[in-house]
Amino acid sequence: MVAFAIVGIVAVVGLSLDVGVLFIENARLRRAVDAAALAAALQYREGYQMSYLDKSAREFLQLNGINDPAALVQVCQNPLDPDYPTHHNASLCPQSGEMARKLVRVVARGIAPLAFLPVIGIDSAPIAAEATSETASVDVVLVLDRSDSMTWGDPLLPIGDPMRDPSICNYTTNPIDASYQGYCRPFDTVKRAAISFVDQLYFPYDRVAVVTFDKTVNPLKVLHFSNVESDIVNFIKGMTVFQGEETGADPSGINAIYPDGMPSRWYDPGGIYYGLDCPQTDPLLQAFYPDFPSPAPCTTTNIGAGLYTAGVEYNLPPVRKNSLWVVILLTDGVANAGYDENAIYFCPIGTWGNSDIPPKCNDGIGTSRHAAGSGNYDAEDYAYDGADFVADSQSALIFTIGLGPKVTQHSTADCTHNCGPNDPLNDGSKLGELLLQYAANVGHGTYTPAPSSAQLEEIFQNIAKNIATRLTH
Fold first, then answer.
1. Please, what CATH class does the domain formed by 138-471 belong to?
2. Beta carbons within 8 Å of 457's beta carbon, 6+ residues apart
3. Range(s) within the chain of domains with CATH label 3.40.50.410
4. Which end of the chain has fewer beta carbons closer than 10 Å to its terminal beta carbon, N or C?
5. Computed over its alpha carbons, how large is the radius of gyration of the chain?
6. Is 366 left (phi over 0), alpha (psi -120 to 50) or beta?
7. What is the rounded CA–CA span in Å between residue 380 and residue 346?
8. pTM of the entire predicted model
9. What's the rounded Cα separation, in Å, for the pair 276 and 287?
10. Would you say 227 and 139 are in contact if contact means Cβ atoms under 8 Å apart?
C-alpha cells in the first residue's frame, strides 16, 4: 500500500511540475509574442513594406528566446500586394461601416520540455500564442490661430507695410508654391508646418480636423474629421488670416464694413494700414455698437472657442473610441477674446483699459482663475475652461505651441520685479505661456515655444513622433 501510495504521490508531484513548466513556458512565449507584435506595429506606417514588419517581429521573438521559422505576421492586406495572401488576415480588416485600423497579428509556436512525463515517453509539449497589436489610429484636431497678428511678419514687419494688411497678403501670389492661398507671414509657415505633420499620418487609418479661430470660430473655417489627405491638405493651403467682419454676404470679410459704411481695416489719412478697425479706434463707429465702450468687438484671439470647438469634434459621428484623440493648439498671442456660441462676450469692465500685455478682456493675472458666470470671468478663464473640456471631458491629449515673442512676454499687471527678459522670478507673469503650459499639462502632452516660425516644422514632426502605439488584446 505504501509503495502504491508513493507511486501516486510521485505521479501527482511530477504532473504538477510539468503543468508548472507548461505555464512558465507559455507565459514566456506570450511575452515574446506581445513584444514582437508591438515591434511590428511600430513599422506600420505609410509606405511600409511587409518585410519590415516580418523582420522586426522575428527579431523580437529571437531576443526573447523563441526561434520559430513558421511564425506568422499578418495584417489586412490589399489583394494586389505581392505577398498576399501569405500575410493577409481577413479578421483584421474593417467590417461594413467601420473605419480601418492599423492592426498587426503575430502567431508563434514553441516546444516546452517536460520533467516527469518523459518516463512514459512524452518528452515535450507544443505551445502556441498570438497577440494583436495596434499602432494607434489617430484623430487629430489642429487648432490654429488666424488672428490678424498672423500677418505681422517673421521677422516683424513695420506698421504701414502693405503685406501686414490681411486683405493684401491673403491674395498675394505665393512665391514659394502658388497652390497656397496668399503669402501672409508667419501664417504661411504655419500652414506648411501643419501639412508636414499631416504627411506623417497614415490615411485612411488616421483622421484630421482643422479648427481656425480669430474673434470666434467661424463654422465655414472648420474642416470636420476627414481621412482623405488631399482634402485636408487643400483646406490648409486655402486658409486665410482674419481680415474683417465675416457675414453671409461677405464670408471672407475682404469687403467687410462696420455700420458707418467704412472698411473694417483701419488706415490713417495717409493710407498706412494700422490694423482692424473697431469702435475703440474710430469714434464714428461708437454709436453703432450698443456694447461700447466694451472692447470685446475689437479682440481677435479667442483661444477658448478654438479649444471648445476642437473638443466637440470628437462627439460628431462616426465617433472612434478606439483611436488616439489628440489636439494640437498653435497661437502667437494671449487670450483676448472670449465669445461663445451664445454670442456672449467674456470681457470684464476692469479689463477695458488694458493695452498690449495684458490685453483687453484679460485681467493680466496669470495665476487667477474665475468661475464662469462671475463678474470677473474673462477671455483667459474661458480658454482655461476650454482646455479642461478637451482634457477632462473628452480625454484627449493636448500639445501646445507658442509662436513668437507675445506668448512669452511678461504681463505688466502681474509683475513684482522688473519683468525684464533676464529676471527669472517673473516666469509666472508670462500670460500666454502659462495658459499653453497648463493646457499641455492637463492634457498630458507637451508645450513647445517657437521663437520664430523657422522652428515650427521640427516641432510638428516631434509631436508626430509622440503618437503612441498600444497593445489591444
1. alpha beta
2. 189, 192, 193, 196
3. 138-471
4. N
5. 30
6. alpha
7. 9
8. 0.82
9. 18
10. no
